[in-house]
Amino acid sequence: MHQAFDPEILPDSKLRRLYDYWRSRCDGGIYPSRQDIDPVAIPDLLPNIFLLDVIGDAQDFVFRLAGSLVEDAFSMPLRGKSIADIQKAAGTPIPVAHHIEVARGGGPRYREGEMLVAGRDHWKTHRLLLPLASDGQSVDVLMGGAIFLLGDRVNEMPTEPWSYSRHAGDPPLGF
Questions:
Q1: What is the spatial distance between Cα 58 and Cα 9, in angstroms, rounded to a whole number?
Q2: Is residue 139 within 8 Å of residue 103, measured between CB atoms?
Q3: Residue 147 in contact with residue 14, Cβ under 8 Å?
Q4: pTM confidence score
Q5: 1 DSSP assignment
Q6: Does residue 156 have a pLDDT over 60?
Q7: 27, 36, 68, 110: most buried by Cβ count inside 10 Å?
């Protein structure tokens, strides 16, 4: 399920706090820049946060950083990896329509759904994407918050690594 963002629908307090923090950094409708985001102000949210550099006109996205829970969900370091690289390794498309919408000035987006990583299809995710812009207008970084759920429980524990080799019929890799 993908929907235009309405802060009232956020089911998780961490995502609501991330949105509120991002909103407090906006200045009169102008997007904050990466430099406007102070990790010291949101230390308990850091394990759930990731930053993606926007490449070109949103042709790709590269992980600038990913919190420990985000990396644990993928069982791999993500810094410097592009979504295209991850997609190539998985051999399957990764849905990025909402990333593109945010990067092209569509404002925040929220999505919840199944975890699209091989071996993690029983997980659900709640993900918020927020635009950052060095010039206040042209989005060059996406700040995201991700909550991972196992059944109806939020998964806050590091996971066991699994193999990235895929068999026919495995679920796609992505988030």
A1: 26
A2: yes
A3: yes
A4: 0.81
A5: -
A6: no
A7: 110
Joined tokens for residue 17: 């706090």
Q: How many CB atoms lie within 10 A of CB 121?
A: 13
Amino acid at 135: D
Interval 113-135: pLDDT, tens: 876 665 666 678 899 999 999 99
d(CA 118, CA 108): 27
Residue-wise burial string across 39-68, b where 16 or more C-beta atoms lie within 10 A, e elsewhere: eeebeebebbbbbbbbeeebebbbbbebbe
Classify each residue of 80-115 as buried b or exposed e, where b means 16 or more C-beta atoms within 10 Å of its C-beta.
ebbbeebbeebeeebebebbebbbeeeebbbbbeeb
Handedness of CA 157, 161, 164, 170 (dihedral sign): negative
